[in-house]
């Protein structure tokens, strides 16, 4: 249920249902559950989806088991998220962090099913393909490429800390002003985010921070360099297909984020699958993806504070993040070692392993409800 259209069956045999008027479906979901005689209802539940909190009471009223996939990127679990979770038959946690957070409130009905990755698509690519994408993005002359794939919405992703850390590194190694670049795949002017173009200018990084743009081409879109006269800034609603994303990850020497908290962070996993080392803050899912994989580095937390959601977030220390960037910049051997480890670690999350978990969970939900 994402747009206004009549029900139709796609190439995979999945029935796609359109909305009526509300984008959150509260004016039509009950009809669909009744008409299609749904056995199990599965949905995402996020702290920001206040309009979706009708799902719990509705499924309870109709006696339909509800499996809620929970997005939680702060600690402890916000009471504003805990309340709708009480209606769920089963709760799905995408990471060990979310699992621990949920079990403090719901010890008996939490299952951990991580996000998956197609390792046949997200994998290290031949040098020729990497060079072609570097040319396409106009970074062929760069010897150290840092990539960050993050949504510019709200303040969770903490772009200022990332740019501050990058500037610290540049001030230590002046050659990086010419041979280094921080690539950002995000919308720099998203209405609910920060004006990242202004942030870049304020920090004096116009020449060493670039946004990946997109270019419409023959009914599809392809990545291009910032300022392409036939291109436009990337937006969250115009996503590159997985095969293209794999090429983008492969141009990087390291993928880095400065987020104040994550429920998982799929771009970090996709980077590992492509053989790209990662840097994450030492919070929420950082220890799981960057730590357990031994394919990344963890940056120290500099500040922890409580939000209006009555839950804590964790701000990375930009100096520590800069130190992590420095280690990868100075050591090609470290990058190679982490690259090999990352590819092996990502195989644990291949969809061939993840899909059976969902199949089993649906059966559990039906059994618990009965």
What is this structure's SSE topology?
Layout: E1 8-9, E2 15-16, H1 29-35, E3 41-46, H2 55-61, E4 66-71, H3 79-85, E5 90-93, H4 96-103, E6 110-112, H5 127-136, E7 144-149, H6 159-172, H7 176-179, E8 180-185, H8 196-202, E9 209-211, E10 213-217, E11 220-224, E12 232-233, H9 242-250, E13 254-256, H10 266-273, E14 278-281, H11 286-291, E15 296-299, E16 301-306, E17 312-316, H12 318-330, H13 332-346, H14 351-369
Parallel strand pairs: 3-4, 4-5, 5-6, 7-8, 7-13, 8-9, 13-14, 14-15
Antiparallel strand pairs: 1-2, 10-11, 10-12, 16-17
Helix pairs in contact: 6-12, 10-13
Could you explain how this protein is built, in words?
The protein is of the alpha/beta class. The chain has 2 domains: 38-116 and 351-369, Glycogen Phosphorylase B (Rossmann fold); 127-349, 3-Layer(aba) Sandwich (Rossmann fold), CATH 3.40.50.2000. It is 36% helix and 19% strand. The chain contains 14 helices and 17 strands. The protein has helices spanning 29-35, 55-61, 79-85, 96-103, 127-136, 159-172, 176-179, 196-202, 242-250, 266-273, 286-291, 318-330, 332-346, 351-369, and strands at residues 8-9, 15-16, 41-46, 66-71, 90-93, 110-112, 144-149, 180-185, 209-211, 213-217, 220-224, 232-233, 254-256, 278-281, 296-299, 301-306, 312-316. The strands form 5 sheets. It has a 6-stranded parallel β-sheet, sandwiched between helices. Strands 3-4-5-6 form a 4-stranded parallel β-sheet, sandwiched between helices. The chain has a 3-stranded antiparallel β-sheet with strand order 11-10-12, with no helix packed on it. Strand 14, helix 11 and strand 15 form a beta-alpha-beta unit. Helix 6 (159-172) packs across helix 12 and helix 10 crosses helix 13. The radius of gyration is 21 Å and the shape is globular.
């Amino acid at each position: 249920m994402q747009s206004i259209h009549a029900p139709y069956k796609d190439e995979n045999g999945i029935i796609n249902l359109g909305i009526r008027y509300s984008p959150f479906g509260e004016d039509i979901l009950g009809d669909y559950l009744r008409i299609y005689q749904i056995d199990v209802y599965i949905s995402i539940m996020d702290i920001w989806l206040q309009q979706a909190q009708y799902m719990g009471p509705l499924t309870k009223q109709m006696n339909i088991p509800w499996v809620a996939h929970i997005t939680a990127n702060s600690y402890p679990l916000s009471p504003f998220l805990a309340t709708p979770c009480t209606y769920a038959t089963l709760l799905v946690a995408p990471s060990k962090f979310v699992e621990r957070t949920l079990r403090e409130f719901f010890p008996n009905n939490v299952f951990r099913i991580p996000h998956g990755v197609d390792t046949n698509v997200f994998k290290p690519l031949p040098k020729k393909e990497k060079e072609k994408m570097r040319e396409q993005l106009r970074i062929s002359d760069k010897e150290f490429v840092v990539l960050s794939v993050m949504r510019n919405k709200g303040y969770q992703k903490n772009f200022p800390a990332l740019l501050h850390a990058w500037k610290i590194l540049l001030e230590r190694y002046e050659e990086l002003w010419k041979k280094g670049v921080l690539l950002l795949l995000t919308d720099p002017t998203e209405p609910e985010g920060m004006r990242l173009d202004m942030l870049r200018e304020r920090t004096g990084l116009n020449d060493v921070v670039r946004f990946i743009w997109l270019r419409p081409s023959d009914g599809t879109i392809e990545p291009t360099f910032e300022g392409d006269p036939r291109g436009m800034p990337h937006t969250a609603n115009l996503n590159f297909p997985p095969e293209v994303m794999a090429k983008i990850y492969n141009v990087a020497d390291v993928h880095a984020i400065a987020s104040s908290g994550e429920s998982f962070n799929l771009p970090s996993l996709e980077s590992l699958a492509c053989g790209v080392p990662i840097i994450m803050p030492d919070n929420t899912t950082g220890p799981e993806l960057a730590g357990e994989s031994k394919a990344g580095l963890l940056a120290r937390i500099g500040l922890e504070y409580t939000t209006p959601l009555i839950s804590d977030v964790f701000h990375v220390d930009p100096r520590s993040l800069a130190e992590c960037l420095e280690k990868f910049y100075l050591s090609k051997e470290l990058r190679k070692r982490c690259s090999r480890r990352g590819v092996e670690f990502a195989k644990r999350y291949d969809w061939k392993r993840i899909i059976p978990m969902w199949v089993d969970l649906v059966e559990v939900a039906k059994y618990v409800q009965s």
